[in-house]
Amino acid sequence: MEQGRRLAELTTLKLGGPARYFESARDRTQLVEALAWARAQGEAVHVLGGGSNLLVGDEGVSGLVLQVATRGIALAVEGAHGVLTVQAGEVWDDVVSLAIDEGLAGIECLTGIPGSTGATPIQNVGAYGQEVAEVIDEVEVLERATGAVRWMRADECGFAYRDSRFKRSRDFVVLAVRLRLRRDGVPTLRYPELVRAVGDQASLHEVRSAVRALRASKGMLLEEGFVPSAGSFFTNPVLPRDQAERLPEMPRFDAGDAVKLSAAWLIEHAGFAKGTRRGDVGISDKHSLALVNHGGTSAQLLAFAQEIQAAVSATFGVRLEREPGGWAQNAESRHAPPRT
Question: Which residues are catalytic?
Fold first, then answer.
């Protein structure tokens, strides 16, 4: 058990103070033992994956930060599907790459998303016309209160736009994810920007390359020159149709019985252009949804985010919801929500 591990080193924002206790669990035995230790000591538990969707307070966090670093991928063929059973600590983009190399379709548009596989159902990650919930068969979880391990069917996971039962609840640790992918090798081409890039006929590898290029053009691909950020800092608001109809003309998209708005458009039209800075934090010069760290503090970034939220609310009456979770020293819960 390590003490005082600096968490900024483990997040893509490169922000955050130390963990009182830190453990990187590379197998299930180590993970279960760490959770049992925390229960016995009365310490809060903060589950960490790849650190790509997390804002840690400058003062750090009390309790135990438990990094899930388990590895392993198994492939089974079931008729028209290839089923990947992936341990939670596997790097998500490596899983996407493997699926594409095997000719398995269903997650090709989710390439370039940083973080661990275990975090994908928590956030219900999505991009360029796909959501991981579309291909999740089951999620293996450990119940924190009892230590019991079980598989949960997709319909038990409460998936919604960038949301899930695991994000709302602190009762589970994700251990593995089972993905049911198509063996036909036909990519998902729903997103207009992606279709313009590759046309309506493309291979899985071509879609992967195009999506990575699009993400890089928006400063959302972890590569050389990446300015520390958590990717999209706000989710696109989803409003009831009657509420959306009262808003001025702006980009909007059907979302079932609701309407989804563009958070990027709202931010820019509330007065925050790409490249805007507040001291050592700001907005990416490539995409207005990405808040970036130029050497600042978590407090500075959070204050800037709140300034943006207030301006969008005052201008349009729309509340922007923050996408990255936050950990602070005075976390109220003994079991903080897991983060990517």
Answer: 162, 232, 323
